[in-house]
Specification:
By secondary structure, the protein is an all-alpha fold. It contains twelve helices and no strands. Helix 3 runs parallel beside helix 10 and helix 7 runs antiparallel to helix 8.
């Protein structure tokens, strides 16, 4: 396999660049909603704040997708490095089952507890209706979000980074096209943005499932493995708990910001924080893309016992992430207005 034999630096760039593009497109995905919602006549400001209040919920859904996706992908690559194809496919099957069960639990919980949760997050009487309009539609599509985000790493970890990138691009293009139609042409406002999002995520989810069942994929979704197998899932959860906690704590921090800003700064302050969240994502997502590109290389070679290649990939990843982060920090310090206008 190229993952075990190719030049580590070239492999990292080959896998990381599509992953970075996918992360940036994913950021565009989120920003498009905010841009269109912010331009809704008369109510755009309140609607944007309502969307910002839903952001922690979106992050929680992402966290659970990462629990299975980011946890399962390294295990799959390790088994592939060892030549254990069947064990890798067991992880794919159990991952699909786990994502489906988690999606159902999240959907039911949020539909029942939506209003008190949004109140807890800092929703006012003015912004609650907009936040509810978005959330109640968004959570219906939780299963699509879980599949598109949770299964896409299973494509990347096989070395098909470009195909994983297509998952995000397909969804983003659909969202960009559908947003103005639903929000403005059909006059649905915030509800239209949520509907456009879940339809787009649904298209992405179908793409992922079709790829994992297609000829190109080295691993297939086998019906016999579609079950919650504890022996398979426990190691996945052990690896996935770290990205889960990182994303969940980001959600918790966002909740704290919203609660404080709502109390001391009002709805305008919460809306401003929504904009700043996009800037923070712009800083983090390329780093995440680099990490996603390096993961298959390190996991595969760890499974194959080629520790020197693991160390080399890790060293290159650290250098690239540090360099980008410092350059971004310098850019923000020198040109702050560029990032907020």
């Amino acid at each position: 396999s190229e993952l075990g034999e190719g030049n580590v630096g070239k492999l990292l760039m080959k896998l990381a660049i599509p992953a970075i593009v996918a992360q940036l497109v994913n950021l565009l995905y989120n920003m498009v909603d905010r841009i269109y919602i912010g331009h809704i006549p008369e109510t755009g400001g309140l609607a944007l704040t309502g969307l910002g209040l839903c952001f922690p919920i979106i992050m929680i859904v992402t966290a659970f997708a990462n629990l299975i996706g980011a946890g399962g992908a390294p295990r799959i690559a390790i088994h592939m490095g060892k030549g254990q194809q069947e064990e890798a496919e067991k992880i794919v099957g159990s991952g699909v089952a786990a994502l489906a069960v988690i999606a159902v639990i999240i959907t039911i919980s949020l539909e029942i507890l939506g209003t008190p949760i949004l109140r807890l997050f800092g929703a006012s009487n003015q912004t609650l209706p907009y936040a509810l309009d978005y959330m109640q539609i968004y959570v219906v599509g939780t299963i699509f979000v879980m599949f598109s985000l949770g299964l896409n790493p299973y494509i990347t970890t096989q070395g098909f980074s470009k195909d994983a990138m297509k998952t995000v691009i397909i969804g983003a293009v659909c969202n960009i096209i559908l947003d103005p139609i639903f929000i403005f042409a059909l006059g649905m406002g915030v509800k239209g943005a949520a509907l456009a999002t879940i339809i787009s995520q649904g298209v992405s989810a179908v793409w992922v499932v079709c790829f994992l069942n297609g000829k190109k994929s080295l691993l297939k979704i086998r019906r016999r493995y579609l079950k919650l197998d504890g022996k398979v899932l426990l190691p996945v959860l052990a690896l996935g708990v770290s990205p889960f906690i990182m994303t969940a704590t980001e959600s918790a921090i966002n909740i704290c910001f919203n609660m404080s800003l709502s109390k001391y700064g009002g709805d305008v302050a919460v809306g401003a924080m929504t904009i700043l969240s996009s800037i923070m994502q712009l800083q983090m997502m390329p780093v995440q893309g680099l990490s996603q590109g390096a993961q298959p290389i390190m996991s595969y070679n760890y499974g194959a016992g080629k520790i020197d290649r693991v160390k080399k990939a890790n060293r290159l990843l650290t250098i690239c992430c540090f360099t980008y982060t410092m350059l971004f920090w310098v850019a923000v310090q020198l040109f702050p207005a560029v990032f907020v206008k």
